From TrEMBL:
Record organism: Glacieibacterium frigidum
Subcellular location: Cytoplasm
Name of the protein in question: Holliday junction branch migration complex subunit RuvA
Entry comment, domain topic: Has three domains with a flexible linker between the domains II and III and assumes an 'L' shape. Domain III is highly mobile and contacts RuvB.
HAMAP family xref list: DNA_HJ_migration_RuvA
Domain III, as annotated region: 150-195
Domain Helix-hairpin-helix DNA-binding motif class as annotated: residue spans: 70-89, 105-124
GO BP, one annotated term: DNA repair
Subunit structure: Homotetramer. Forms an RuvA(8)-RuvB(12)-Holliday junction (HJ) complex. HJ DNA is sandwiched between 2 RuvA tetramers; dsDNA enters through RuvA and exits via RuvB. An RuvB hexamer assembles on each DNA strand where it exits the tetramer. Each RuvB hexamer is contacted by two RuvA subunits (via domain III) on 2 adjacent RuvB subunits; this complex drives branch migration. In the full resolvosome a probable DNA-RuvA(4)-RuvB(12)-RuvC(2) complex forms which resolves the HJ.
The family this protein is said to belong to: Belongs to the RuvA family.
Top-level taxon in the UniProt lineage: Bacteria
NCBIfam families from the UniProt entry: ruvA
Function of the protein: The RuvA-RuvB-RuvC complex processes Holliday junction (HJ) DNA during genetic recombination and DNA repair, while the RuvA-RuvB complex plays an important role in the rescue of blocked DNA replication forks via replication fork reversal (RFR). RuvA specifically binds to HJ cruciform DNA, conferring on it an open structure. The RuvB hexamer acts as an ATP-dependent pump, pulling dsDNA into and through the RuvAB complex. HJ branch migration allows RuvC to scan DNA until it finds its consensus sequence, where it cleaves and resolves the cruciform DNA.
GO MF annotation list: ATP binding; four-way junction DNA binding; four-way junction helicase activity
Length: 195
């Protein structure tokens, strides 16, 4: 199995690149985010898939992104191309936050992911996603009842924030000013979102 490639990027296509390693060109499938970061010399973490009719290499700039790819593949109905499409629109941190916040709309933004598949991804990954590191992720906030946090989440939703973004902004605000004053939470959340 190939686990890592280090070489020169020969060509970059829509969803693939060719990495030359000592004269051998490897065709690697990658997310738009990964392809956008490539140039000259590259080191890619590789997930190798062996099928009856093909051997495919999927490349990632970080091990964290590769781990999320593997986790996405464990969901029924998600293949390599769909997993790459999801990782093209969401960073691993954003994906972990979307799963934790049950934000199916963010997951459904990826090409080939409809509302039903997005709901299945969130449902199946909610328990397993917490085991993966995701950098500096703020724990999502939930609003089971009424209170300052619930009011702040509702206000941001009414302003057009996606659930994932509203949850992240309010979580950061709670960490800064506490959860007793909805007005303060909304002001801080809006300031943090404007950055």
């Amino acid at each position: 199995m190939i686990a890592r490639l280090k070489g020169t990027v020969d060509a970059i296509g829509t969803d693939t690149c060719v990495v030359d390693v000592n004269g051998v060109g490897y065709l690697v499938h990658a997310s738009a985010r990964t392809l956008g970061s490539l140039g000259g010399e590259a080191v890619l973490h590789i997930e190798t898939q062996v099928r009856e009719d093909a051997i495919q290499l999927f490349g990632f700039t970080t091990g964290e992104e590769r781990d999320w790819f593997r986790l996405l593949l464990s969901v029924q109905g998600v293949g390599g191309r769909v997993a790459l499409a999801i990782l093209s629109v969401l960073t691993p941190s954003e994906l972990q936050h979307a799963v934790a916040a049950k934000d199916t709309a963010s997951v459904a933004r990826a090409n080939g992911v409809g509302p039903k598949l997005a709901a299945r991804i969130v449902l199946e990954l909610k328990d397993r996603a917490g085991s993966l590191p995701a950098g500096a992720v703020v724990a999502p906030v939930s609003a089971p009842g009424r209170g300052a946090v619930a009011d702040a989440l509702s206000a941001l939703a009414n302003l057009g924030f996606r659930p994932m973004d509203a949850s992240r902004a309010v979580a950061e605000a709670v960490a800064e000013v506490g959860d007793s004053d909805a007005g303060a939470l909304i002001r801080v959340a809006l300031k943090k979102s404007a950055r």
